[in-house]
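Let's practice the habit of predicting before peeking. Look at the sequence and jot down your guess about where helices and strands might fall. Then scroll down.
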Amino acid sequence: MRMSGRSQQSPRRRAFAPVVLALALLTAACGGGTGSSGTSGADVSPASASERAAAAEKQLAKNTLLPLQGKAPAPQLPVTVDSSDGRKVTVNDASRILPLNGGVAEIVFTLGLGDRVVGRDITATFAEAKKLPQVTQAHDVSAESVLSLRPTVVLADTDTGPREAIDQIRDAGVPVVVLDPATELSDVATRTTRIAEALGVPEAGKALNARIARELAAAKAAVPQGSRPKVAFLYMRGSAAVYLMGGKGSGADSLIDAAGAVDAGVEAGLDKPFTPLTSEALVSAQPDVILMMDKGLASVGGVDGLVDIPGIRETPAGADRRIVTAEDGVLLSFGPRTPLVIDILVDRIHQG
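Done guessing? Here is the structure:
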């Protein structure tokens, strides 16, 4: 995650210069506690926003996960759980797990069950999953690829498809647990609980939720008093001429709020997750900071290309070139790495 603009030199120094401190923070993050209730260390000691952001950036740069400490949990099965497609699903065996969503896969691995995962979908881009066979083409699930891996349980989202592929997997006798998509910060705990219950490790789910809650509380505690900048989340794909501004329900709105800022789109009255961007709406919103995904910013020619889009220069964010970016697969993943995103946002968006 990066900041562009007048303050660019300062965050780079603050993010990368204190290497010893960042390593110390990460050592604490990996080493505190014992057993499945171990913490990643976010609450080990107080730290400034810049220190937390430096440690978080180093961890995200590794693109690896921090599983719960201690011995991997042993699934207690069978269990019968509610599936978001209206079914009740009984899981008898969690020896071969296949998550069809990158965020779901992150939770499974962080619970300590990564060695049971037999495949991945295209959105599972973290290092531990990269060697696994991919079972999606673009974002469509291949039932044949899934069944060839002989999964004993499949975890999917309500928007996983096509439906025919999911039906084919289910008709082959494989339990398919469907989950609601995670679209805001509060969904992390719900989704973690449901995944842990479906895999027969509810106590590990409770431990992971407790860890995430501690990390989020520590990140929020670093928000500077009296600072409430306005942040606009822009989703752009220049090659496809897609220019959208986030509003209520975009997902980014809950992250911006957690980082102690105001979502400019929500404040401007955008009541849909995304609205086509207009120069009038952007100028009216007057964001202090613009938040984007890395690929989105690259697709419009970087910061120089972005500020040439009508309306951008007329905002405080555009005039000061205050652009914060995050890796596409992490920003809205809403999983175990989300506290790291909040750590970085707290530092970057509150810089003067």
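How did you do? The CA atoms of residues 248 and 271 lie 5 Å apart.
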